[in-house]
Amino acid sequence: MTVIDKYKPVRQEPQTVTPVRSVLPGVFVSALALLVFSADSLQTFAFYEDDLPAPVSVAIEGIHGVSEATGVLGLRRGLDALVDPLNRTAKLFRKDDGAPAAAEDDEVPAEPVEPTLPPGERWAASPLRDRPTRILIVGASSIQHAIGTELQRELEARYQDLVILRKGKVSTGLARPDVFDWPSEVAALMDEFQPDVVIGQFGGNDAQNMMSDAGPQKMGSEGWVQEYTRRVTDLSQAIVDHGALPIMVGMPVMRSEGFNRRIGIVNDVTRASVQSVGGLYLSLTEPSADDKGRYKASVMFDGRSGRMRMDDGIHFTRLGGQFMARFLSQRLERNIVLFPKDDVAPEGSADNPVLLASADTDQPAPAPEPTKVEGPAPAYRITIPSERRGPSDALAYVPHDVPAEGLPVWYLLHGAWGSWEDWPDHAHEVLAELADEHRMIIVTPDGMPHGWYLDSPVRPEHQLGTWLVTDLLDAVESQLPADGRRAISGNSMGGHGALHAALSRPAAFETVTSMSGVTDLTHAASREHLQELLGTFEAAPTAWTSRSALHRVQASPYLLSGTRLMLSCGDQDTWWGPNQRFHEALTALGISHTWDPQQGGHTWDLWVDALPRHAAFVAAPWKIETPPAQAAELAPTQGQTPPSSVPEQATP
Amino acid sequence: MGENTVNRPRSSSPRRAVQFATLEFIAFFLPVLGMAWLSRPWPLARKLFLLLASYAFYAGWNVGLLVMIIVTSTIDYYCGEGIANAKSKAIKKAWLTVSMATNLSALGYFKYYGFFRDNVEALAGAFGASSGLPILEIMLPLGLSYITFQCMTYTIDLYRGYGVKAGSYLDFLLYIAFFPQVLIGPICRSRDLLPQLSKPVPEGFPDLTQAVSRIASGLFKKVILATYLSTHLVEDAFLAPENFSSLELLLAAYAYTIQIYCDFSGYTDLAIGIGLLLGIRLPDNFNQPYRATSLADFWRRWHMTFSNWLRDYVFLPLGGSWGTRKQTYLNLMIVMWVTGIWHGAAWKYVVWGSIHGVLMVAYKLVQDRRKAKGINPKTLQHPRWYVGLNWVYTFHVVVLARIFFRSTDLQVAGMYWDRLLDFSLAGHGIEWLVLPVAAIGLGLNFWGQHIRSAFERLHDATPAPMRPVLWTFVGGLVLVLQPADVAPYIYFSF
Asked: Is A356 exposed, middle or buried (0-12, 13-18, 19+ CB in 10 A)?
């Protein structure tokens, strides 16, 4: 073998040699000058670095003082402000994606709608009908990289009539607005893009200390939780105020145990905050963990197997991102209106397996109960403790032999002048049978004779709306063997209450039904009891419209679009008109629902007759998950609807 | 404290110290610089200190993987001793084999296991079977590709008889781990570094002016230009090309080629400048790569320490261009495949290497034809337009082949090409500042050396007491101009 060394080594003899003593001091002076020039960054650094030794912190404060006193700080800030516009220059080659003009007024109901306006006309400009669904996806590195890119690809591949804008930026979050100000960025993007849905994933860089108005907050402390809650809630609220549905995606399980624990806190706060304004939370904990809930490094998906996570134990590989994207798109399909393309395999088929059963909880779907004891469910009187309104009563029908995972809960609200005893008084035996037949817990809470299940702007102590979606659910689920799945229904005032609850917290209820419900409060503007809670309609029209299902759905159609809906009403009822209009509005908006018109008036006869149909409708998705053998056993139990009133399915 | 300090990801962390242009690195480097010169009277203590500093630097990334560096460099040191002291050629060969096996198996396990497993699994899957190979979560130690290549130059050069033997175990450890070059090169031969380590400590800063101009140039290219291009266009265009128009993707491909030059040559400038401040001169890695008028010319100018390595340790041992023409072509292809797979364990790098290989073979074929006709291409004087055309061709091969190199995987590269060829104008939108920034970056490839020389003249003309003012001014300029965040070094991942 001939070896020819062509290599020329580097020149090693220096041309000039500068004495050490004439350089080193200069280097240190120059470094110090640059520190003075960077006093602001140093101060920020010191704040977020909570393990700094005291002398360093003192030195940094000193440098900051010197910088301020000598005017260097002012110079730096001036120069930064001068250069800052360069970070966001005007765009060339931008394609017009048909974004509608920005709304003039961002308040929830843009303008109070005249209750007397003829139906149909009002809904002509339905956002869902005359343009594609607009989805804005924002977040940190996971959105810029695997999860975000693959989610966009997945959605664009599977669904039609979508416009997606995605903006991800590495190393950002909500904890450090000094690094990147997401709330302003999201506001700017919403003005520009006019989204119907905003999907955000932020928490990855937020497990760190934060600066609040009250001072520095240590990660995980009470003050930190308060501050982070405020930030997520404000951002979600801003999205709702813009007429879009906020959806926050949680962070996945992390390899480092300590980091994972802190991310758990971030996830908990994010979930509670986004749900508090009626948004959705989609957890990634489940698909990113093994069956013991621990970090999972690999994944099998679409016939391929490989690493799911990158070397850092945080980010996803492309395969991992594809898996997460499929998981998320399946969750989204259940929660917002998406129109699958014709050639896309339906969810649950071999080509598109349902990845994991449950959506918004971190628990797997309960296994069905193998043995079933017959017999009407016994009823229990329970007390709902609450600091908001004081203790109240409720009746709970709990079937025999509750499985370990618990059972779903159906909340049944009463009408005006009534109490928690209304439904048991009129249909005790029916309720006990239905609870047993459909394997669900039925709860009849108390909504006060004229409580209207809403928060009053006039009487701040009246917070029945918040009570329903927080205290009531918490109490029921802590006292009874509930599995976290819920539905809500009601008659008359209770119909309003059910719709209002679902609109304030869409993720909380899988199904909402109304029997002769008050779908539009403005139609009852003359009622004194309502005026006591809301003020007169003339004085405060938005207080009425913003609590009315009809107006709320018009303003933010996506809030209800993922909830299963059923409406019954008698044709002799005073609420026939508003119910019919609500049905037409939902149809115009493309929101799938079941319309169940009846013959009759505003009577208990009609409601007791409707009760089994509503129960079957409510329980339908809960039965799908039982194995075929048992489903066959359950299916023929009841002729679901009398032939005279076949519900008509309104689909987009 | 307490549980909060365990594995806490922070806004700033030792991990950031491995990037040169950060506050953390400066906090690390200033004391090291001071100590390195104050300890001049005690050369042994000075070297030990530099070694510990280098290990601390590397441990900032991952403490566990530090063990790997120490183990492999220890084995290679003793293999080197074995080769130097061997009485017979067979014993030399045995020692060399141990060294090669150590380095290649470290590289193979850490870098290529996942790739190997995925392909075996896919192959087995095609026959309806499973390979049974587990999916291992292996962390690629930072800089492993560079460290193993540098270790191998040492033992191979000793074996061939022209290597410089390390004066001591300490010298060798420092040669491998010297922190300015440990992560992404330049890959130093034993002759580059070891004599400098065994020589007496220099009396003062060798070529201070060059050190300053290298650092200034590195910061400008790396922190300002490369970061801006990455965060404002390249990153998003290559992650999700389907959102961009073909015009934008063409611009993004140019921008990436300019970004990778600014990033990598900027990092090398920083490494050389920092080395000079510590009294060590590192080899250069770039010589106006985008001036090349053929692919062979390009590889003589781009990442030179790496392409020299391949030439000396792969191409020439295979027989270089002395065999038959067919053998030469095959050797060229092999070198370009190695180049590809060295950059990462993925098919996209193989495709990228193959494109370079095939086009270089084609070029060689044309030249060989001409030689057969009695024309010597080396003495041929081409008209300017012909040279210009060759430049355009070479530059575009480099730019377009890198679409495979940069895309997430071959599938995404396919999407990139799909969109690139649909000839659409408007799409995602590009901030206008990208265009002048890219132009400046490309300009630095041609005139960077002139600008550096001008700066060096200014620096030399500045009286010593005024120099810190100049340094502060340059540093301040970089601080003000740097985009909001600093993108990671591209070549870290290889």
From this structure: middle
Query: Is-cis flag, bond preceding B186, omega within 30?
Result: yes
d(CA A383, CA A385): 6
Q: Residue B221 corresponds to which amino acid?
A: K
User: Are the C-beta atoms of residues A349 and A356 closer than 8 Å to each other?
Assistant: no
Q: How much is the average pLDDT of B459-474?
A: 93
As a whole number, mean pLDDT of residues B83-97 equals 94
Q: Supply the residues of B annotated as catalytic.
A: 343
The three-state secondary structure class of B315 is helix
Is pLDDT larger for residue A249 or for residue A626? A249
Output the six-digit token pair for A597: 């018109």
Reference A517, options A410, A607, A619, A423; nearest CA is A607
Cα–Cα distance list, A176 to A89, A171, B244 (Å): 23, 10, 30
Residues of B in contact with A90 (CB under 8 A): 431-432
Going from the C-alpha of A643 to that of each of A166, A320, A646, A650, B375, the distances in angstroms are: 49, 50, 6, 18, 96
Tell me, what's the ipTM? Answer: 0.84
pLDDT digits (tens, 9 = 90+) for B198-257: 888 888 888 899 999 999 999 999 989 998 999 899 988 999 999 899 999 999 999 999
Tokens of B472: 């502060």
Indicate where chain A has its CATH 3.40.50.1820 domain(s): 393-642
- Domain A132-340 CATH class label: alpha beta
Tokens of B335: 């070198």
Helix, strand, coil fractions of chain B, as percent rounded to 5: 70, 0, 25
Nearest residue on chain B to A295, alpha-carbon basis:
B137
| Residues of B in Cβ contact (< 8 Å) with A306 | 114, 118, 121, 135
Q: Taking Cα atoms as reference points, which of B317, B284, B300, B307 lies closest to residue B100?
A: B317
Contacts of B316-321 spanning 24+ positions with Cβ under 8 A: B316/A2, B316/A3, B316/A4, B316/A6, B317/A1, B317/A3, B320/A4
- B371-421 pLDDT per residue, tens: 888 887 777 788 899 999 999 999 999 999 999 999 989 999 999 999 999
- Homologous superfamily (CATH) of A393-642 is Alpha/Beta hydrolase fold, catalytic domain (3.40.50.1820)
Question: How many CB atoms sit inside 10 A of residue B9's CB?
Answer: 18
Measured CA to CA in angstroms, residue B444 lies from A86, A325, B258, B286, B449 at distances of 21, 42, 10, 12, 8
Report domain extents, chain B: 15-198, 208-493
B136-170 pLDDT tens trace: 777 777 788 899 999 999 999 999 988 899 999 99
The answer to whether A31 contacts B429, with C-beta atoms less than 8 Å apart, is no
CB A531 within 8 A of CB A556: no
Average pLDDT over residues A128-141: 79
Strand A17-19 to A298-301 pairing: unpaired
> Could you tell me the CA-to-CA distances from B234 to B81, B117, B238, B296 in Å, in that order?
47, 31, 6, 27
CA quadruple B278, B279, B280, B281: dihedral, nearest 10: 120
> Do residues A30 and B468 make contact, with C-beta atoms less than 8 angstroms apart?
yes
Q: Is A352 helix (H, G, I), strand (E, B) or coil?
A: strand
Q: Does the distance separating the beta carbons of B137 and A309 come in below 8 Å? A: yes
CA atoms within 13 A on the CB side of B57: 25
Does any CB of chain A come closer than 8 Å to the CB of residue B8?
yes
**A590 bridge partner residues:** none
A-B contacts at Cβ under 8 angstroms? 214
Tell me the percentage of chain A whose pLDDT exceeds 70.
Answer: 83
Question: How close A276 gets to chain B, by Cα (Å)?
Answer: 29
Neighboring chain A residues of B140 at a CB cutoff of 8 Å: 311
Q: Of the candidates B342, B313, B388, which has an alpha carbon nearest to the alpha carbon of residue B156?
A: B313
